Structures are given as structure tokens and as C-alpha cells.
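Subject: Sanity check before I submit

Could someone independently write out the C-alpha cells for this chain? I want to compare against mine line by line before I put it in a report. The sequence has 671 residues.
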Amino acid sequence: MTDGSRTTDAQLDPLPAETRELQGADTLLEAEMLGAERELAAIRTGIGWRVLTAGRHFRRRVLPPGTWRNRAVRRVVAGAAACLRLGIFRTIRTLLLTPGQLPAALRAAHADGLLLNRQYQAWIDRHRLTPAGVSAIREDIQAFTDRPVVSILMPVFNTDEAWLGAAVESILQQLYPHWELCIVDDASKAPHIRPFLRTLADGDRRVTVKVLDLNEGISGASNHALALATGEFVGLVDHDDVLAPEALYEVVKRLNADSSIDLVYSDHDIRDPRGVRRNPFFKPDWSPDLLLSMNYVTHFCVYRRELIERAGGFRKGMEGSQDYDLLLRATELTRRIEHIAKPLYSWGQAPTSVAANPRAKPYAHEAGRRALEDTLKRRGIAGEVLDGCGAPFRYRVKRTIVGRPSVSIVVPTRDNWRLLERCVRSLEARTAYRPFEILIVDNDSRDPETLAYLERVPHRVVRFREPFNFARMNNRAAAAAAGSEHLVFLNDDTEVIGAEWLEAMLEHSQRSEVGAVGARLLFPNRTIQHAGVVVGIQGKAGHAFWGFPVDHPGYYDFARVIRNFSAVTGACLMIRRAVFEELEGFDEAFDISYNDVDLCLRLRQRGYLVVYTPYALLYHHQSASRGVYDPEKDRRYEELLRERWRHVFEQGDPYYNPHLTLSGFDFSLRV
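---
Independent answer below. Compare away.
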């Protein structure tokens, strides 16, 4: 292992035999390219090529790009493809039973990548950096009051020359000039690595290279790179990542706006071997529960160097998830975390990369689990780390419930005894947790069968003999449940599916930093009714992934991981009694709609988190008990919500990226 911060000629000088091998390989490659050119020429003169060319010309004449005919045909084709993905039987069943849910179900079926990537190509074209934009950035840099050096750490090991070259070139082309690149070669055996690094170090004084004599793994190499860093801030870049030219500028611009920031992360996309950018990940702002479910921050992020040093650097034994482990430790030391809602880097889809195959590195998934287990120990959290639903690198932190806190389940109703009976029976038969009590709030029922059921049901009934006001009914019942530590507000048209539903909510409701907890609710046809609420959808607040099939992961698995939202539905909402009383309950001005959203936003205003858990699973026969909404009244509630929470609507939901659509529920792009 060398000690200097720069390599010597002796360290990087290739052997003559290696040189001869490379020259021979070049000659062979030239011969192969000539053969490929001859084959391509033969293909272009063939009948098949001529038929395809004629077909393309015919399509351009009949369906010119940009015309209504072209758009109409594309929509028909996209719809047909979505029907095939959803399945003919499911498409017909949805059309016949719940036709209003068909568009969302088709979008979900089509959201597996094809539609999103088409949208993303349009998004890239719209946001492409122009010469005028470059000039504006350079002028802005000159106006910065603070121009800190950003040290970029890049461990290297046997990286393909094309991937490594693209990664390094993207750093050399940064518009922000005050950076240094700290590369550590982890004893690579590939013959092209050392000559490449020698040329690089000689060509730019901002590049420092260190070569290790022994392989120490990515954690060890990263620590060596950190030791080379002299900048106030440190950026982490993988050897197959490509930074956008404005990446460091955007980071330093944010640091100039707020000098207290300790950590900055950005959105990203995937770059395939042909250089095509796809699968964009437009991320939420800082979301602590999402980070415990998955490393949503991933590669390129910029830390204050002092923060990494306080966190202890990179830990050996965490290879494959060493960046995740560092994030978990560093974010325990600061909450000054900033998200830049732009894809500032492309994750290279090299053959051995997790971007190409999430199952390529099973040891990395296990390292992530160990990092989370250590996190629970450091934070003094009783619980266990389980594999999450679906893809690798998704986890469930299952917390142990402290003691046996009492729970009151509040169920408002009126003249719907069959719905109520089904709900109550499911609570009695399918709830594993004890103790809990059921409080039925009867809104002046008149139906004889309902009254008879309320007389014989073995649960407390709270009489509410006033005009329907959902918020007031729940407030009245909460006051009657004075002995309980936690409250669950539950619609009478719900039905429990999974026995652990109450425990899954209680494990988060018991946390002092959490205000409200929401469940995953399904329509009877097994499509999603609720998986969190996004403020701003359709100009109001709407359910994420509404109408998606239950087995669909949602955008980047967001439908099936524990994460933070701005709000959850009051159809199944848990809250600590003390917190509910602190807020003085639901605002009764929202007598029918949006009282749940208003409650959650008031919780957020006071610094509480709102948590969605997919492990609390129920059916919701939506509006079966209340009937059809009154459009005029609904508009009044929407206007009241927008007026009261104007700043949230104007600034955007922090848990929903501003580049995602607000016109629907599918997390597609705004283009």
C-alpha cells in the first residue's frame, strides 16, 4: 500500500508484456469492427431491411409525429398494452363491476416502466441544459459568497474502462470548478486501470490517486479516499455513476442558501450500456421511516466532512451497503438534511451492478439488514429487521410494543347494521392484539334492525343525536374513551384482513415522534383504496396508488413499505390519546370531508411524523355507509382545506416529488 496522495511512475507503469497484449487486442478489435461493418452493409441491402424502411416511411406519412392521429393511435396501443398487462379477465371484471377504477388500474398495469420511460425521455428533452443555461450557471457561481471545495470520493476496483471513463469525465466536466477527485484503486488486477489513473492524475492537479497493494474492499478503499480529502464537503460517487454537469453547482447553490446544511442528496436515474437514461427515481424530501425501509438516497450525496468523521467513516463488513450504513449513522447526528429535486446523477447499469440485477449481490442485502439491526441497537429501539415485501433491499423494521397499552376503536354508524356487523365481527375474530375496546357511535339510527343490533351488541354504544358531523362524532367518542392510551378511528364499512393490523399500527403510534398512523386499505376487488395521502393531487388531497392492483409495488415499492406521508385517511387512523387531546381533536368545520387531512397537517405543523404501514391491511367498502358525496359541499371543504393550508399547496407536498403528476394517483411524470 502506498502512502503518498499521488501515484508514482513506478506504481502505475504497465509491464511491456501487458502493452503487447493491449496492442494485439486493438488489432483484433479493428478486424472485428471491419467484419461487423460488412455484415451491416449486407443487412441494409436485404429484403427485410427494405420492408422495414418502407413501413417507417408509410407510418410517418399516415401518422405524422405531433398530429392528433398519431396521438390517438398511440393512446389506443398504450391502452391495449395496459389491458394485456392487467389481464383480459381482470380488465373485463373491473369494467363491469367498478368501471370508475379501470383508468387507474390500467395506469398501474402500464406503470411497470414502459410509460414512465417514454415520459422521461420527454422530461429530459424539456429540462436539457442549454448554452444559455450554462452561461447563467457560470454567472451564478461567480456571485456565490461561499465557494467550498467538494472532495469527491471514488473507490475503484477492476471497473470496465468505458464505465470508469464516463464517470471520471462527468466530474471533469463539472460547471462548478472547486472540487477535488480522490480516487483509490483497491488493488485492481485489470490491466487498463493503472495507466488510466496515471494519465488522469498527470492531467489535472485536482485529481489525487492512491493505489492499494492489498484489496481492502469498498469500505476500506472509501476510508482511504476520505483520508485524502481536504474539502469542507465530501461527495460520494460510484465508479460507474455519471454526474450531470450542473450537479456540484446545484449542491453548492443550496449550501449558499443555507449554510447550516450537513447533508444533500438528489434524485437519480439509471444509465444502460447504450447510454440511455431511464427509470428515474424522483424522491421525497427527508423521510426517516422510508430510510429504515430502503436506501432511497443511494449513491451521490454530499456530506459535511466533519459529519462523516463524527459518524466514524465507512465500516468494514458492510460492503455492498456501506453507503446505507453511513447514512443511518450520520442521520442520527443531524436533521439538517436537504433534498434537491433533480436527477443529478445516473447510476450505471453495468453487468455486475445492482442497477442491472437487484439480486446480483445478495451479500449486499444482508449487509443492509445488519446495518439496520445495528441502528436499532444504537437508538435503543426494541425490535427486529425482517425482509420487506417484493424486491431485495426492502426491509421491515418491526418494533416491539412496549407493555400492553389499551386501545379504543371508534366506529361511527347510522342505519347500516349489516355493514357494522361485518366490521365488528372482523374486529373480534381477526385482531390478534389485546386489550382493545370497540365504541360504536350511533348517529340517531331509525332502522329497527339496526336498533335491535345495537341493543344486543356486546360493545359500548355512544348516542349522537345531532345532524351528521363526522368530526364531532369522533370527538364525542374519543371523550367517552377516557381510559385508553391510543385511539383508532375506523369506518363502519371496513373489514379486517390481517390479524396483525392493530399491532402493526400500534408499534408506530407508541413512538413519541409520531402523530398519526395509517393502514393499507383495499377495495373488495383487491385494488388499492388507500396507501397514503398526497396533498395537491387534483387540486386537493388524494390517495396514492388509488386503483392499483394489491400486488403492484407502486412507484419504487412505495405502496408496500413503511414510509412517511403528509396525511393518511381517517377511515383507519391511529393516534395517541394525549396527542389527539393536544390538537383538540378533529376540526368540526370539516364536518364530512378532509377532517383527517387537516388533522394530519396540524400534526405535521407541530413536528410530528405521519406514518403509513402496509402491514395493517383491511378492506374498505368506500362510502357504502355514507352514500354519494354532495359535489357542492365537497367543493366547500376543498376550498377550506386549500385556504387553511395554502403554504402546503404552494410549496408542494414534501413527501411527493414536484416532478410527479398532480392530475392522478400513479406517480407518473409531469411532462
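---
OP: Matches mine. For the report I'm noting this point. Residues 1-62 form one domain.
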